């Protein structure tokens, strides 16, 4: 295999200046991970950005709310950006927009109508007024040197776009998130004909969604979910609760249609569900028969077989309505034996335990729970291997760069490109920060810029870093033991017995009883050695307590000595 | 549906004394969860226990090493136990044995040869010498009033047994973990004929493994893994590393056979792999051709296409050999482009992120990674729905009690029992601690004993409880801010500026700069109010700092004030 693909070593060098007439591509997020998609294109000293999303944290990032793309590489060049193009309205593509706008409030944001409506709602929450520029599939417009053409693509949210970017360096096609449902609910097909036309013209670089590249075959049509929902809801003679993603308009449409068919009114539960479906209905992307929707309060007064709830919480989020129901803690809805709950959603990797926790809670209360593990109530929004082959054969690209995926997905996608005839040395597997230059029709890795994790925790961005997270991991595993000592600053003599307390260490109130005498002994030792420096005294105490707790308990709490000179 | 099955409310009352001639069944672990299986049978004031396993902790139990069954219900009756029967040697069935032996070192432990060999090795590590009594399939022996008959069952470890327990109250059959591979590698079939014979005699209560009850159909034979491994390893022309469970002797046997076929020597990697395969070879359960095994050091000197590693770490355990390889940190083995890694194992729910982290690390280094997601390199050890129907139809039980499962599995298993003709009111869905009495041929829930989580953390058992875990969760999410103040005990006046420090709160050294003046202001306030009680001063400080951090950062670190009277 070529050095480009499998060397196992990626460059650490800052790239050389971009060659004249070349196009530079750098992902600040979204390659080597699933989430926080953001790709920067550079030509002639100007920048175009595609997508600006967030990533949700994993176990090793405790307390973090969101992870942003790393803007450092463009911070000093923020006024060189001609536009931000958004392919669709999912959080992993638009979630970081407000944070980028803090750096440049007037950044032109380009996207389809629904995408921009979601961005506008998000920005409103951040009290920002973005500069929005609506585009449609089939449209071609230039921002600076970047001549962009937009193509309809099918995904798990309406109004998604792929973007072709023409510069003198060549033609680049970026799929965004994509699949090839041949019978989409809204009739809006992925524009394979358009892609073929681009292929005829010659696509120099093809950036391709890798999420499902490991999955063989094809996704069945979204349309096939409807009859399954119909069957389940027809059999229900009590309450029905359907949980799904709050942006999946077509899924909700099918639920509404089934509700109408079976004489049920519908209550929307969850802030994002209410907000997004309101937007979708306003834009005529969701058809809601008059009188179908009722408020939660109204729904609670109706006969149980005449109501249906559409709720968020399909990922087992602990504060969601569905989780509260599963714990028997929801203010309005208490699950009763015979109720039906449908999780019409995937399980995002990492959420399995939380989702099954919710399922078990609901089942324990007697609900009949239908989920993708026992019925066909979800289809993926991403093209698996069979559909990706169609894309490669339509586009016939000169160079390929898999995006949107962990390493296993990127490699699988690269292998598909090679199978369709793309030469191995023209398939560039990068990761976040890797610099790819398209020069003279060939894409090559030329260096690397630093891309780290930027954490949002509460109101502030970036002050929680690896050191704080590593402390949190230690504290979360073993708690801490604090030892507070007041010493005479002249002699180093302890002014009182040390105050010992532990949190997250033991439920046993006597667990640390032995520490007092241990510390006192150490203090008389430091005093006798003439040690008065509080920092050194603290070091001694930390060492002796750490050793004691390792020997006695074989645990590693954080040891926190505080020595106060009085 | 009957009250027995779906009331959604389980009793909280202590059960009445067991009726004369009745048999009582209480699970101290393993029902409502997967793991720490332990079921207590009581007849005529005497006890028999089946299995004594551990559960591995989830995210909500940070720092915990193991979770034990709750022994409280039998602690005072420890000398009334006639025997502990172990169905097989997996950790979730034997892992808590050393902890039970601490309460009663001479407890008779009954099991098959391989099971007892694993128990003996485990007890040796705990410096215990258990009283072991070997039994074989087909054998029938009584311990006290409990007349036990053992049946061969097929599972993902050799030498597994089901146990039939006869008392004057009736005949109970407990499957242990079970599946119905009709072409097992060792030819040792689940004894369906024996189960049918019991069915003829009349099984009053059938306790059935629920793990795969939600999965339709049948498990393919373990035997079908061999050819898949053969195909992958035949194509490999560099190093091959196979990771699997350290107790899966038949899986390892197939790997060894393939290694022989392709002229590769084998190095075992990982302490438990080396130990268990040594035991299996000694007991002639594993056939190892002479000269096949080499040490890791030898393996490193051999040509790469003549060696194969069998390793632990298939669950992504961060300290395992495989995880180290994926991070490029293994002392001996560095993964190179073109190496082959096979994860011949399932993903235990909750481990998905860790396992895929390892896969991505290996793929990034250029390895070809084969796992159950892209090849048939694993089959489950538990009977899915189709096989469970065979069991119900062979046994034709009067009463059924699903065991070994979360709520979703228990309900699915119960539904299968009903489909085969067991009356709904004879299917008892219990959970840990629920007391089921078999009286006059009918099993009924009669009460509940308290069963909590018993945590092992380091050397001690039980001192880490819910309060410690809840502190760890707070600390792990937000860290802490400590405020140390020395006050004049007579006046409550601060003797020095407060010492403020945060851990796990922020990487920004100035993040807490404003806290000093905030606390000083509060202290002058408490002093002016004449407050000298250190506890009350601490309360004031905690409140004011907590409010500040919520307003400023929208975070919730633990606030830890220490007020020292001087």
Topology of this protein?
Two copies of one chain form a homodimer.
Chain A: H1 3-6, E1 23-29, E2 38-43, E3 46-50, E4 66-68, H2 72-75, E5 81-85, H3 91-94, H4 97-103, E6 108-111, H5 113-125, E7 131-134, E8 140-143, E9 146-153, E10 160-167, E11 170-174, H6 192-201, E12 205-209, H7 225-235, E13 240-243, H8 249-261, E14 265-269, H9 271-282, H10 296-301, E15 307-311, H11 321-326, E16 340-343, H12 352-364, E17 368-370, H13 385-395, E18 400-403, H14 407-419, E19 434-439, E20 442-448, E21 454-457, E22 460-461, H15 466-478, E23 480-487, E24 499-503, H16 513-528, H17 534-553, E25 558-565
Parallel strand pairs in A: 3-5, 5-6, 6-7, 11-12, 12-18, 13-15, 13-16, 14-15, 16-17, 23-25
Antiparallel strand pairs in A: 1-2, 1-19, 2-3, 4-21, 8-9, 9-10, 10-11, 19-20, 21-22, 23-24
Helix pairs in contact in A: 6-13, 7-8, 13-14, 16-17
Protein name (chains A, B): Ribonuclease J
GO molecular function (chains A, B): 5'-3' RNA exonuclease activity; RNA binding; RNA endonuclease activity; zinc ion binding
Subunit structure (chains A, B): Homodimer, may be a subunit of the RNA degradosome.
